[in-house]
Amino acid sequence: MSRLVPDFSMTIGSANFSGDTEDANAVIEINVNLVEDGAGMCTVILADQDGKWSGGKIKEGDSVKVELGYQDDSLTKVFEGTVTGAGSKSESHNRKKYQIKATDDMQKLFRGNHRKTYNEMKRSDIASQIAQEVGLQADVDSTEKIDYVQQNN
To answer: HSE (CB half, 13 Å, CA atoms) of 147?
Structure first.
């Protein structure tokens, strides 16, 4: 009977945390939280004993991609987003740690307040327009035209 061994691949900015590399060995924890009606989040904790990460190698705005799976099997992309915060984490047992927080692109839909009325439009066109306004692409099926709808969030 074969044994399943967890595996991962991750890039943050220009840092590649894949395979048996020094960077991959620095990974202590990867936590991905995906929600149906909100922005997905990812938290990564790295060992930072030598200060490599706290020296600014990873910064806000860097892209993040996380794939998870098992050795000898294909990995599945579970998160893609942007670093929203990074910094040293409190030390425990004289072990320095560096924490990275990222959100997926859905967070763009939650920025600011939006009030707008859409008249004589398809719901699919409204969704596409809202997504486009924040730099996203909507993959929607065409719908029937409606009289009006109000966006108030």
So the answer is: 0
Q: What b/e readout covers 95-122, taking b as 16+ CB neighbours within 10 angstroms?
A: ebbbbbbbbbbbbbbeeeeeeeebeeee
Contact 35, 88 (CB under 8 A): no
Q: What is the mean pLDDT of residues 104-115?
A: 79
Whole-prediction pTM: 0.77
Strand 41-47 vs strand 95-103: parallel, antiparallel, or unpaired? Answer: antiparallel
Q: How many CB atoms lie within 10 A of CB 58?
A: 22
- CB-count exposure of residue 127 (10 Å: 0-12, 13-18, 19+): middle
Place of tokens 């893609």: 80
Q: How far apart are CA 34 and CA 78, in angstroms?
A: 9
